[in-house]
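pinging the channel bc i need a second pair of eyes. not urgent but kinda urgent?? the chain im working w is below, pasted from the shared doc
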Amino acid sequence: MHAYRSHTCAELNKSHVGETVRLSGWVHRVRDHGGLLFIDLRDHYGVTQVMADPDSPVFAEIEKVRSEWCIRIDGEVKARDESLVNAKIPTGEIEVFIRDIEVLGKSEELPLMVFGDQEYPEETRLRYRYLDLRRDKMQKNMLLRSNMIRSIRNRMWDQGFNEYQTPIITASSPEGARDFLVPSRLHPGKFYALPQAPQQFKQLMMVSGFDKYFQIAPCFRDEDPRADRSPTDFYQLDLEMSFVTQQDVFDTVAPVIAGVFEEFGKGRKVDAPGEWPQISYKDAALWYGSDKPDLRNPIKMQVVSEHFAGSGFAIFAKLLEQDGTEIRAIPAPTGGSRKFCDRMNAFAQKEGLPGMGYIFWREGDNGMEAAGPLAKNIGPERTDAIRQQLGLGVGDAAFFLGGKPKSFESVAGRARNVIGEELGLTDKDRFAFAWIVDFPIYERDEETGKIDFEHNPFSMPQGGMEALAGDPMAVRGNQYDLACNGYELVSGAIRNHKPEIMFRAFEIAGYGEEEVRKRFGGMVNAFQYGAPPHGGCAAGIDRMVMLLADEANIREVIMFPMNQRAEDLMMAAPSEPMAEQLMELGLRVIPRDQ
């Protein structure tokens, strides 16, 4: 017999009754039933109930066993009494009578319990992550992650892609976040960087003629943490293709993403890729207040400025006299009560706004009537025009925000989400996808007037060189994101592969040709030797698993995550370097207060 096990803790069933078996695992819990000792023995695969009575030759040793001890047992498989069958687990029809036991590893008193669903502070969970990971939920999350990545690889290979690995130590390259720098021992005073993404390398592969590349790639960015973003490193499905249009990229990656969500989505509805809408960045901001809208919520915001211009509501009327301002309405079907409107007004105040205007419609003595402070100020004719524009009726409401769009769009988007949730309009049993397209390449600083890149500077401008001859604020890039349920899952672009267009694009943002060559010399030089049109994208692995696992925090689906302060409490990182290391690298640490 094998030294540790003849079966896993998920394999035994009635067909094994009478056999002598060997199992190894952890003591999930111990139950003493008056002289009968029952142990739920757990391994990665499942749980088997093992038991002993005073007739067992090792009963005295079994009495000493405690939770999370790692043990090996030999015993005889017995059928459970029908009244004691546990149909919830595969091994629920049998139990194993222990004949021999070996303690493989004792456990000290546990800082957190593995059995049950007790909540512990994140600091405790991350410090003892190896114990936290023994919990059933965490085991399932990590297995989901592994199986999802395997499925992605299979789907990519089935489409003719090949997987290649790109360097982990490379040159610093601004990708929108801070680099993690690595000092060079052989070249004192110089630094490598951990790649924020394989962006330049995958484009260089297209120049090299490899046509279809993908990789489950580690990426490193020194970012502030969020619930859906790791502060140090993350993984992405990275892909690039030659001789493709934007639609070709969509048609390639969409079936992969949809297939994965269908396979692991626990029966939730997944919109077919052909039904995924393509929404311009401008419209997404207007309708949803976000470039990663949650389309499970059917609410669409609308501009209603004309109904407030010159109206009796002085705040909005005066606001509209300023350039670049507008009033937007958030429809709230079924939200037509003063109580709900007051709650949303309180929400706006928590978001730092003075409040949020509202109108709601109810049955009055003479039929439908509008209520609320705004209704009184602008009168029935304007109020009814708003209602008709928004397609609302009795029992519905609308909320209003005004100013320059960038000043209130994000709050309006959050308000839309809250309204959809509270009114039960958001379909929780669905994954709703949307391509966000036509991103602006440039933005202008309102105070200085300086033009800079708003989004990916390596995207091919729509219209090429001709587009760069006009108003920079009107230039749109062949750039796209894929949103799902309020999260950005995929980001990509058709690349700017022509040096002359690249130099002009950077010149508009104030970067001369010399600086572009200095920063991106490898890629610019390569593009001078017959670069093909190419494009691709990257999909966030961690975020996809987070959605599929129904988790609100990305740390729940990463094996060994950092905490909110980018610290590894388990391994005590970051740590202070030894003096010898600093001397070898020619570095000196200067305290912050000097």
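so Residues 136-158 form the longest helix (23 residues). and The radius of gyration is 30 Å. — does that match what u expected or am i reading it wrong
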